């Protein structure tokens, strides 16, 4: 976490400004600050190149706007002359006893282990969450962790909890971020961070740590969860503190500290995989104009290479939550895994988008969410039977905010929890089944049914009925269109 650090008294800046004439609409061209300037440093970094950002602030400090932005230029000029070190958790150095580190076994987290021991003088407990990233990702982790200097590795299988308590509520809410993104990474971070808080309590740790960069969303998602579940835990984010600038620096540091460097081939893409999705970023994808390469995808076949014959599946849903595939009841994780396999072979669920990161920049990502795409289509279609017009409109409007909260890492925010209670209530009758056709990347709904359906054939039929008298429509249209009629009369002078 960034720390406030006094860098210099105001008198040492010696800025000279010229005030405009009295009566000018501009404020006086001066900076007055009776107390010390302070630096709120936020060191930002990522795998390939890192930047340092500093915001200067002060107590009772009046920085005013000037003609030609002279004050701003002077401050920037002063910053160039007087180098300010990035913020660190220096106040915690030597005070932490044990840290729980989110650990993947890759180069970055392998290097973080000795770095924490060297800079904080603490024990390091590595924690790995199984959220469906694959068996290969979990192989040999204990040996790697201990070889890096960790005193312990804790692995927890969170797959069922992840799908049941995080994915399915988002599905029920219809939460989609910026029209496309089904929130795969966003939902995974809070379940991992929650488990880290539990492990910290179990092993008696007084801090937690992660390997997120200072330019990404994940640092926020992890830390907001830590704050919400245990505000007394200290947080260490090495990427916002250390001098390591990229992969080569990390390898050099690892060799210096006798840390075994992972021998797996470095992917040209930055990927995140769990049971819900697989994301791809980096390399040619950094240019939004570039088409993704065909061999990049891992969860789904190219729709052009998918089977020439469509496949029909039936999804059973109870109170807005999926329970079965083709009549076979499955646990949440098993159901999702089954649909990933089915959807993947038909090229379902590929999304290419430019999104707005929480930290302010735009980024381009490609996502594979085969099972999730099928489930969203099924849940949305069943609601067309079970929800009335007004309820559906309100639900859709709240879903936008729900998705925004999840993307921003505010899973344990009372607002999201309250929204979830609303979603649970209005989907009590969203029970039934939906039949879908999967064919070369597309998902088409072919049938839907529910014991709580609001659709009545005897009302909707074009045949005459006793409930709906077509003659009644004339009066309705006159009243419904009255404002338009009055306006037209006014314009024509009637």
Automatic annotation (TrEMBL):
GO terms for cellular component: cytoplasm. Its EC number is 6.3.4.5. Keywords: Amino-acid biosynthesis, Arginine biosynthesis, ATP-binding, Ligase, Nucleotide-binding. Residues 269-486 form the Arginosuccinate synthase C-terminal domain. It comes from the Eukaryota. InterPro entries: Arginosuc_syn_C (IPR048268), Arginosuc_syn_N (IPR048267), Arginosuc_synth (IPR001518), Arginosuc_synth_CS (IPR018223), Arginosuc_synth_type_1_subfam (IPR023434), AS_cat/multimer_dom_body (IPR024074), Rossmann-like_a/b/a_fold (IPR014729). Residues 98-260 form the Arginosuccinate synthase-like N-terminal domain. One of its GO terms (biological process) is L-arginine biosynthetic process. The keyword Nucleus does not apply. SUPFAM superfamilies: Adenine nucleotide alpha hydrolases-like (SSF52402), Argininosuccinate synthetase, C-terminal domain (SSF69864). GO terms for molecular function: argininosuccinate synthase activity; ATP binding. It is an enzyme of class 6 (ligase). It holds the Pfam family Arginosuc_syn_C. Pathway: Amino-acid biosynthesis; L-arginine biosynthesis; L-arginine from L-ornithine and carbamoyl phosphate: step 2/3. This is argininosuccinate synthase. Homotetramer.
């Amino acid at each position: 976490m960034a720390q406030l650090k006094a860098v210099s008294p105001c008198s040492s800046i010696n800025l000279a400004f010229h005030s405009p004439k009295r009566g000018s609409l501009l404020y006086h061209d001066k900076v007055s600050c009776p107390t010390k300037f302070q630096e709120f440093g936020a060191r930002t970094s990522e795998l390939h190149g890192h930047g340092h950002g500093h915001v200067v602030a002060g107590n009772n400090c009046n920085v005013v706007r000037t003609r030609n932005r002279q004050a701003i230029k002077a401050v920037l000029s002063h910053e160039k002359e007087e180098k300010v070190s990035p913020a660190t958790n220096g106040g915690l150095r030597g005070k932490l006893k044990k840290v729980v580190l989110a650990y993947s076994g890759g180069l970055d987290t392998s290097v973080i282990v000795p770095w924490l021991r060297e800079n904080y003088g603490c024990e390091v407990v590595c924690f790995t969450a199984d959220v469906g990233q694959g068996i290969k990702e979990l192989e040999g982790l204990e040996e790697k962790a201990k070889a890096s200097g960790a005193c312990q590795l804790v692995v927890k299988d969170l797959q069922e909890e992840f799908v049941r308590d995080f994915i399915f509520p988002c599905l029920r809410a219809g939460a989609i971020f910026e029209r496309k993104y089904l929130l795969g990474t966003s939902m995974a971070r809070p379940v991992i961070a929650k488990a880290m808080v539990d492990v910290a309590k179990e092993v008696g740790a007084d801090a937690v740590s992660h390997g997120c960069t200072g330019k990404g969303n994940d640092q926020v998602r992890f830390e907001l969860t830590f704050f919400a579940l245990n505000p007394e835990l200290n947080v260490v984010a090495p990427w916002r503190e250390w001098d390591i600038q990229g992969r080569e620096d990390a390898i050099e540091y690892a060799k210096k500290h006798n840390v075994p460097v992972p021998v797996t081939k470095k992917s040209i893409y930055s990927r995140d995989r769990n049971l819900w999705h697989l994301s791809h970023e980096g390399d040619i994808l950094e240019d939004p104009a570039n088409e993704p390469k065909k061999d990049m995808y891992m969860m789904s076949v190219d729709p052009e290479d998918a089977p020439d014959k469509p496949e029909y599946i039936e999804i059973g849903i109870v109170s807005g939550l999926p329970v079965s595939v083709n009549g076979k009841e499955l646990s949440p994780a098993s159901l999702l895994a089954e649909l990933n396999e089915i959807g993947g072979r038909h090229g379902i669920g590929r999304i290419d988008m430019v999104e707005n990161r929480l930290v302010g920049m735009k980024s381009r990502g490609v996502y594979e969410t085969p099972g999730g795409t099928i489930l969203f289509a099924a849940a949305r279609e069943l609601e067309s039977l079970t929800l009335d017009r007004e309820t559906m409109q309100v639900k859709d409007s709240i879903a936008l905010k729900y998705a925004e909260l999840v993307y921003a890492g505010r899973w344990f925010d009372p607002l999201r929890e309250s929204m979830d209670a609303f979603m649970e209530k209005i989907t009590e009758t969203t029970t039934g089944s939906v039949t879908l056709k999967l064919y070369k990347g597309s998902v088409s709904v072919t049938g839907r049914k529910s014991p709580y359906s609001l659709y009545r054939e005897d009302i909707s039929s074009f045949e005459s009925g006793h409930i709906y008298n077509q003659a009644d429509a004339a009066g309705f249209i006159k009243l419904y269109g009255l404002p338009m009629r009055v306006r037209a009369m006014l314009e024509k002078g009637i």
